[in-house]
Amino acid sequence: MTEPSSAPMTRIQQKNRDRILEGALTAFSANGFRGATIDQIARAAGLSKPNVLYYFASKDEIHKTLLTTLLEMWLDPLRRLDPKGDPLSEVLAYIRAKLMMSRDFPRESRLFAYEILQGAPHLTEVLGGGLRQIVDDSAAILAGWMEQGRLRRVDPHHLIFSIWALTQHYADFDAQIRAVLGTSRDPLAEAETFAEDLYRRLLAP
User: Fold this and answer.
1) What is the pTM of this model?
2) Secondary structure class of 114 (helix, strand, coil)
3) CATH of domain 11-57
4) Would you give per-residue pLDDT tens digits along the chain (205 residues)?
5) Ranges of each domain in the chain
6) Which of 35, 85, 174, 204 is the most buried (most CB within 10 A)?
7) Which CATH class is domain 63-203?
């Protein structure tokens, strides 16, 4: 059974829940949703299967909770766009934040990408609701800067999509990038320099 949603968790309970989600990330990243099992998640978390099922009713619930948490993490830098800030600096800071997430959270990025490639069966409601609203709000900020002549006019939604595509590539295709560049180069450091130059040229008024 699961914890009552109204009951506050103790520190130990929160720690166990976090261990389960970390174990699930390991299991899902290695085996996919279909291949991962509750037993694998329990082993990766260092807990018993009944203990896992005390916090989450099913593998599906664990997966959805993990993905929802990841989506919140991915969207946080976009929420931080400051309408009162310098437009180009705000966009470049967002790009840097996304690149650092590709560096620090490659498993999470690949797990999220895999869910999207499967048609987002566990995230349909979230993607159509919260995600869309946050992106629309951010696009409105970008469009406002463009109307003011502070950024060159491009489609703000596709600008966001292009940043996602560029930055997440460095997590999802890390092995390919390193195979091409070799071991002596730092892909993310080079990517940051390249992206800043690219988007400065694209967006500078």
Assistant:
1) 0.82
2) helix
3) 1.10.10.60
4) 444 445 677 988 899 999 999 999 989 888 888 889 999 999 999 999 999 999 999 999 999 888 888 888 888 999 999 999 999 999 999 999 999 998 898 888 888 888 888 887 777 766 766 788 899 999 999 999 999 999 999 999 999 999 999 999 998 888 899 999 998 999 999 999 999 999 999 999 9
5) 11-57, 63-203
6) 174
7) mainly alpha
